[in-house]
Amino acid sequence: MSKINETIRARRSVYPLQFIDKDIPNEIIHELLVNANHAPTHRLTEPWRFKVFKGAGKTKLGSFLADKYKEITPEYSPAKYEKIIGNCEKAGAVIAIILHRDPKERVPEWEEVAAVACSVENIWIALQQYQIGGYWSSPALTKYLGEMASMEENESCIGFFYLGYCEPSDRIIQKKPIEDKVEWIE
Questions:
Q1: Domains and CATH numbers, the chain
Q2: pTM tops 0.90, yes or no
Q3: Which listed residue, 9, 43, 52, 59, has the most CB atoms within 10 A of its CB?
């Protein structure tokens, strides 16, 4: 099997609880984002934008999200409040995934979202070479990011990508056979 096939098939989610307390150098995050920038995009709209939270920025993000959760949830869970803070603290970095909608709306919004998802997948695939894990979370809290970080009118946060070093794993996620999902028409 080719290296690219192995890499794609080994891609997995790694949750913040599994992260090792170790800083991720900015140079590595930059390389991951360069990979993200090479995603396909219809009409070259390049609708992905990212906000990287590290160090005190992660703490600020975690506190903001937890406080916002408490504010908008009448019967909030203290455990979930702490988990929101903990996920940011355990991560080596948190990347806010931003949809930067083409102001001219030359392509349907779903295509822009798909392009952003492709850019995140490029990050995810590239993580393995650094023994870094990643987890994409899309909580309802994403819509409030503009209250703490600058966002343009045509932008919206569609998720948070948590990055962290992790123990290597040879665990392969077992998918249902592709034969169950394809119809050949000849």
A1: 10-180 (3.40.109.10)
A2: yes
A3: 52
